[in-house]
Amino acid sequence: MDNTQLSVAVWRPADQWQTEDEAVALRLKHYQRNNRLFLWTIGVPVLFVLIEWIMGGLQVVAAMCLVALVVMAIIAAWHQLVVGRWLPTAETLLATSPRRRLAACVMAHRPSYTVLGAGDMYLRVRFVNRGLRQVIARSGEITVIGPDANGNAVVFVDGWPIPLPARVAAPTAQAAPEPTVDPAKWFVARQAGVSWLCAAGASLLAAGFIYDAQQPTMAVALDWLYALLFAGVAIAALASALGQHRLSRLLTVGQWLRYPAALASLKGESRRPYVDLTLHVSLQDGRSQKVVVRKASPALMANVYVTGTLWVVGPAVPGRLSAVGVPGHPIVAAARFA
Questions:
Q1: Model pLDDT, residue 308
Q2: How many contiguous H segments (helices) and E segments (strands) does the chain have?
């Protein structure tokens, strides 16, 4: 029997002082870092254009960098407008306001936001992907902190310890429901698509620098250096895409199985949106097995810590990779049983 829609115990925010939750705090720091990162990345294409212009190499790459500059500027402005203005309010709400569990349903969604009916109000919520909408539709509830006097609020989806920017919205007619998907498989497919897109973009830039290196300019050595740099980025993105395809195959080897687990150690930093986990799981024969999860999301960390459970697709085989996560949620990673 397919058990991808199992009703399982998952992480939920504390009644108050949610900023003391390590997974929530890690994500807030990542929001802050992203605000600064987007502003700094605007200078990267500007620097490339200036160097190429000084060295007399304004060719294909200059055009690419100018396009990248416009795109990055738009992204940075949007992120600052949506997240930068909301973040101070969110930190205050998370530190001072109690949570509320509200009945919720998906009313409508657009590429940049989702409108939720929550209790007697409507909320426009950012960063609600298709997998999270599936979770909301199945659970019928969300956790809301706020709103404040200006209509700003924080939303949590069950099992997802990431504060989502929300704002009170006008009433919206309910649209037709989305077709049901397996959130874990959908998430892996989306991550693979992003990696392929990054590989294609980096390859295009590397090709542009190689073309510029063939021109009679003073920037030949610099162009070859940039070409090698972006070729390395393309290779890394390709490796990530292949890893996601491998994870997709691991999700098909069996059913979700529950193992009691304890968190042994973790390594997480605000400069990256994931953590490295070391777990000890109890097997069915009573033995304890070490499990290492590289680049696990804070969501996986939080769910294992709170529930004391690690869900694994198929039997645990020492020395082999397995897919781990939370059934019915867009939370999945590759793990190796030592």
A1: 95
A2: 8, 12
Neighbours of 271 (CB within 10 A): 9
* Integer Cα distance of 338 and 320 in angstroms: 8
Token pair 């804070």: residue: 298
* pLDDT value of residue 206: 87
Q: Which of 24, 333, 7 is nearest to 187 (CA)?
A: 333
**pLDDT computed for residue 153 by the predictor:** 97
**Rounded-to-integer distance, Cα 149 and Cα 146, Å:** 9
Mean pLDDT by 10 residues, the chain (338 residues): 63 82 84 72 65 60 67 78 89 91 95 94 96 94 95 96 94 89 95 95 86 71 82 95 95 92 78 81 86 90 93 86 94 92
Torsion, Cα 100 306 269 42, to 10 degrees, reads: -40
* Extended strands (E) in the chain: 99-110, 113-118, 121-125, 141-145, 152-157, 160-169, 256-268, 275-282, 288-296, 309-313, 321-325, 332-337
User: What pTM was computed for the model?
Assistant: 0.85
Q: How far apart are CA 297 and CA 125, in angstroms?
A: 21
- What whole-number distance in Å separates Cα of residue 184 and Cα of residue 249? 12
Kindly list the distances between the CA atom of residue 317 and the CA atoms of 275, 281, 337, in Å, as whole numbers in the listed order: 23, 12, 7
Q: Give the number of C-alpha atoms closer than 13 A to the C-alpha of residue 23, restricted to the C-beta side.
A: 23
Yes or no: say if 306 and 294 are a contact pair by the CB < 8 Å rule: no
The residue whose two tokens read 């738009």 is 74
Cα–Cα separations (whole angstroms), residue 159 to 11, 128, 219, 306, 330: 4, 13, 51, 10, 9
125: amino acid identity, one letter: V
DSSP string, 163-230: EEEEEEE---PPPPPPPP--HHHHHHHHHHHHHHHHHHHHHHHHHHHHHHHTSSSTTHHHHHHHHHHH
Q: Are strands 275-282 and 332-337 parallel, antiparallel or unpaired?
A: unpaired
CA distance 334 to 322: 6
Max CA pair span of the chain = 70
